[in-house]
């Protein structure tokens, strides 16, 4: 039996959390009710990719009850130790303080290749977009700029590259060679423009990152689903699987592209979408205390269209492929980058 099923077994999970979780909360002596909710559940014969929420009650000696959302993020082929280390680094450097926060890292399990952390409760920016709530969307986009600015302004001298593969466009999973070959095999007419454009992006990034001073901690998976509104005052950033040292413009370009794509898919007006891009950049400048000049805008553009290209590759290579939509995306990027299709 696949070992990961143990974390889904109520009896095992209770004993395991009593052993590993309670020491993180010394004021509490025992566990109350635990509700197990699989968030992501991909389990094969020997491998797995699973995210589990444990809605957990902690009981104090004085009868107090603390309700916590405890999460386990596990991957058999991509051990989550780097995620735990990255989250610990952020926590030690105070990223959780104030109105812009993050989940609390708790412990790492080598046995399950899992990071355990206390989650944050709230609604994601993606949920507000899906619900068609422009006021909340506008507010959250401005807050997101503050979250990324806070992350990018952290000192990196003591930081390591927590996800080295993800830190460069030519190595980010699933890898350009893998994508090129599969697209060449399945959609040969799209292969040449796709490869040319991707190589332009790789070359631009390499040129900028030649200077070793050009390093910032970046989230690496900047999209509306990873930004959470906690209450009227607080917002949080989640999912640090791809945290790495790279160009901060990558977070900005990827977030803008993903957000605009989702807003268009949910029938927000073009005027509103443009307003939110301008608001995001203004808020980022104010929070980071820097000017997003033409040179930075050009780097944002590179990562914006790289994200479009990555989305197109996903549409081409997923199980239920959508080659027509993917081709539209590739053509739009080719036109923007002046690449002959």
From TrEMBL:
Task: Give the matching InterPro entries.
Answer: Aminoglycoside_PTrfase (IPR002575), Kinase-like_dom_sf (IPR011009)
- This chain belongs to the protein called Aminoglycoside phosphotransferase domain-containing protein
What Pfam family is a match for this entry? APH
Which SUPFAM superfamilies is this protein grouped with?
Answer: Protein kinase-like (PK-like) (SSF56112)
The chain positions of domain Aminoglycoside phosphotransferase read: 82-284
């Amino acid at each position: 039996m696949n070992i990961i099923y143990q974390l889904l077994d109520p009896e095992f999970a209770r004993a395991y959390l009593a052993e590993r979780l309670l020491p993180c909360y010394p004021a509490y002596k025992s566990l109350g009710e635990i509700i197990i909710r699989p968030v992501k559940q991909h389990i094969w014969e020997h491998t797995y990719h699973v995210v589990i929420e444990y809605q957990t009650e902690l009981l104090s000696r004085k009868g107090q009850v603390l309700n916590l959302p405890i999460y386990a993020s596990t991957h058999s082929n991509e051990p989550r130790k780097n995620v735990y280390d990255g989250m610990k680094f952020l926590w030690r450097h105070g990223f959780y303080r104030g109105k812009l926060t993050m989940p609390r890292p708790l412990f790492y399990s080598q046995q399950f290749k899992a990071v355990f952390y206390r989650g944050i409760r709230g609604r994601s920016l993606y949920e507000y977009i899906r619900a068609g709530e422009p006021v909340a969307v506008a507010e959250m986009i401005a807050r997101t700029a503050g979250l990324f600015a806070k992350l990018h302004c952290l000192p990196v001298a003591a930081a390591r590259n927590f996800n080295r593969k993800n830190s460069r466009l030519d190595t980010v999973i699933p890898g350009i060679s893998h994508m090129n070959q599969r697209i060449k095999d399945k959609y040969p007419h799209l292969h040449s423009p796709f490869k040319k454009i991707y190589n332009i992006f790789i070359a631009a990034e390499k040129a900028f990152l030649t200077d070793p001073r050009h390093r910032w901690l970046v989230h690496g998976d900047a999209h509306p689903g990873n930004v959470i509104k906690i209450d009227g005052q607080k917002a949080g950033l989640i999912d640090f699987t791809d945290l790495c040292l790279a160009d901060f413009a990558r977070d900005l370009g990827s977030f803008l592209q993903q957000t605009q794509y989702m807003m268009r898919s949910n029938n927000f007006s073009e005027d509103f979408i443009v307003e939110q891009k301008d608001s995001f950049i203004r808020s980022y400048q104010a929070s980071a205390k820097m000017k997003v000049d033409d040179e930075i805008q050009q780097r944002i553009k590179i990562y914006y269209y790289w994200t479009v290209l990555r989305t197109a590759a996903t549409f081409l290579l997923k199980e239920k492929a959508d080659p027509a939509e993917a081709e539209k995306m590739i053509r739009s990027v080719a036109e923007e980058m002046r690449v002959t299709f």
